[in-house]
Amino acid sequence: MIRAVAAAAFASFFSILGAPPSGASANETITVVTSFPEELTTRYEREFERGHPQIHVQFVWKQSRDALVELAKPDQGGADVYWAPAAANFALLRDRGAFRKISVDRVALPGRLGAQQLSDPAGLYEAYDVAGYGVVSNPSALAAAGLSAPRRWRDLASPEYARQLAMPIASKVGFSPALYDIVLQSEGWDAGWRLLGEMAGEATLLDSGVAPTSSVREGKAALALTIDFFAEIAKANGAAVEMIYPERTAFLPAHVAMTAGGKHVAAAQAFIDFLLSTDGQRLMMERDSRRHPARPDAYQSASQGFADPFALPASTLLDYDSEIGRRRPPLITLLFDLAIVEGHAESAELWRKIHDAEKKFAGNAKAMEALDEARRLGGFIPVSESDARAAPFLERFARRDAIDPQQIAQWREEIGAARRQARDLVKSLEPAP
Predict the structure, then answer these.
(1) Where is the signal peptide (predicted)?
(2) pLDDT tens across 98-130, in order?
(3) Which residues pair with residue 28 across a beta bridge?
(4) pLDDT for 156-204, tens place per residue?
(5) How many CB atoms neighbour CB 190 within 10 A?
(6) Which of the 8 DSSP states describes residue 249?
(7) Over the stretch 28-79, which tens digit does the pLDDT of each residue have?
(8) If DSSP codes are grouped into helix, strand and coil, which group holds residue 139?
(9) How sure is the predictor about 21, in pLDDT bands with cuts at 50, 70 and 90?
(10) What residues contact residue 190 under an 8 Å CB cut-off, 6+ apart?
């Protein structure tokens, strides 16, 4: 009799608070490896456990490199779920057999944005959010300078914009190699580096992720390159800033996956289901996180002015090649240091002289031909586009400390020689004393 009463009480308890997910045991703990900030993970832990009181979520915070080491261990180090903005990690771990297939409602979660693939086609990891890359602006500062909002990456190379611009340093700011790769994929490898060189020549370079948005918020710059949630958080908290998505930009996903070695499969699937549910996706749009859901129906409750990537014009979206993109950051970081950060003051002087000469010699075909060559040399990079698309070549730069120092020295010299030639060309246009 006592057992019957206890069983009835247990059943009644779960009828009120929610039954365990199919196959899950009562009072389970799942381990989630993540790099998302605590204010976001705490919100998800609270809301998930409210609906699933029999499952406790234990977060283990690991940045990208440390997470890859941990999840490469046998049984993925005891983790059940990996949840992070680390596209390269997910692809590597998938290829190593570290994930098991998860169940996803493909009607609600398209796994694509325009022509861009967001999720693993085999279902081994799924897009959780999409982060947009572009320009944070101070509309009042732009108006005071007589400038309209830029619409294309190319706009930022003109001196009127570049002198008002702040840019993150690729080796210092985690999101910036992906941002610069978007520009390179949008404009082409050689033209993209020339554009980045011209933009950066007269811009201010910054060394932290929040600095671009802060510089615009504080009036130190009118424009800055950034990832959108920094700008959106600032705006939601009262800053007079706006996020601009130039034509042919991209929204890159964070992902979630279930580990192959996890011991709590049903509970892990329940947590992933919550992350990807409409209610779960809405949690990321709150004022202290302001991330973009990967689920289109979540935007029905978005605040006014919060961009819906799934409703943007097709011209805004680049068909971003994520397989190339996940391999390029180390090379982009190295080249950005060599070509843009080193000798930045001298580059700024070169680009000022090129821009001033273009105004002075407008209509002079011979002078403009020389200035076109100076522009090419000013943005020269000693790596071909074919190499920059070749996986074996890119893998040589996966670790900065493993790169041949003679290679770095050679590239530094080639870049320096190109800049000297550019300065000589500009100087040749000056009248003889």
Answers:
(1) 1-26
(2) 999 999 999 999 999 999 999 999 999 999 999
(3) 55
(4) 999 999 999 999 999 999 999 999 999 999 999 999 999 999 999 999 9
(5) 17
(6) B
(7) 999 999 999 999 999 999 999 999 999 999 999 999 999 999 999 999 999 9
(8) helix
(9) low
(10) 381, 385
Closest alpha carbon to 93 in 118, 127, 65: 65
In which element (H, E) is residue 59 found? strand 55-61
* Bridge partners, residue 309, by sequence: none
Residue reference for tokens 């057992």: 3
Q: Report d(CA 148, CA 129) in Å as an integer.
A: 30
List Cβ neighbours of 260 (8 Å cut-off, separation of 6 or more).
Answer: 76, 97, 98, 99, 100
Listed residue (276, 245, 259, 385) closest to 321, CA to CA: 385
Q: Which residue, among 289, 285, 384, 283, has the nearest Cα to 44 in the 3D structure? A: 283
Compute the distance between CA of residue 221 and CA of residue 158 in angstroms, rounded to an integer: 15
pLDDT digits (tens, 9 = 90+) for 332-381: 999 999 999 999 999 999 999 999 999 999 999 999 999 999 999 999 99
In the CATH hierarchy, which fold is given to the domain comprising 2-130+251-316? D-Maltodextrin-Binding Protein; domain 2 (3.40.190)
Provide the pLDDT for residue 165: 98
Separation in Å, CA 135 to CA 72, 166, 194, 206, 306: 36, 10, 19, 14, 15
Domain positions in the chain are 2-130+251-316
Beta bridge partners of 30: 57
Q: What number of other Cβ atoms are within 10 A of residue 269's Cβ?
A: 22
What token pair was written down for 136?
A: 């944070």
Helix (H) or strand (E) holding 226: strand 223-227
| DSSP for 293-308, written as a single string | ESSGGGGGGPPTT---
Q: What three-state secondary structure class fits 259?
A: strand
Q: From CA 212, how far away is CA 231, in angstroms rounded? A: 9
Q: What is the pLDDT of residue 11?
A: 39
